[in-house]
Amino acid sequence: MAVRDGEESTTVMDDYETLISTTDVELLKKAWRNEKGAPEILQFEDALVKRIQEQIQLMEENVEEFTQIGIDPLTVSLYHMDLDRTQFLLRSYLRIRLLKIENYMFHIIKTDYLWARLSEPEKAYAKRCTDAMDIHLQSSVLTKLPENYQSILKQSLISEEDDMVPKPHLNMFVVGKGKTYLPARIEPKGFQDTHTDDDRKPDDREFEVERGDLFFARYKVIMDEVIKGDIDLI
User: Fold this and answer.
1) Which residues form the signal peptide (predicted)?
2) Could you tell me what percentage of the chain is helix, strand and coil, using 3-state DSSP and rounding each to the nearest 5?
3) Domains in the chain, start-ordered, CATH in brackets?
């Protein structure tokens, strides 16, 4: 079957974009954007982070070697820019995750699927944070309150749930980009807790996503697709 020039050009560009998007630095950018955009903590990219750390070490060795043997300063400067950019992305990615752990430590620790998303060092950090917070509040506040109000997790001992534990706001709006076609969904599950059938808007009821589409939606509606990798956050 004949292929038109326009179709061939589009195919070549799609292949090029696919190739570029699979480099480790681009994968780290995607993980960084998703982590920054998502209200909850996402799966730690363990294998990717290890590869990036190895690449950073190699780049540092190259920059040092080029400097010693007198390679053109402009070339050294370009290598140094790549090194700085990669280090910034990695540090920012890790900082965002640590900030989420600090904000939602008790919720993460008692939620199995969130706890499983942490790396081993992050789990140790979360445990240290909760232990330190518990000790601090017990010594400074809780022991001075009436007996029924000395829980760090509940407003009172008669509370049925941990109503003093901060949780991520999953109904916040995020900007997403479709990586593949996603069919329309009806009555998105993200609106089950906060909307009734009477106050749902038509736009909330149903929408579909084409590949490359940018859209604005509540995170809870698309969270499964974000986790599966069918939608990237911007």
Assistant:
1) none
2) 60, 10, 30
3) 169-234 (3.40.5.60)
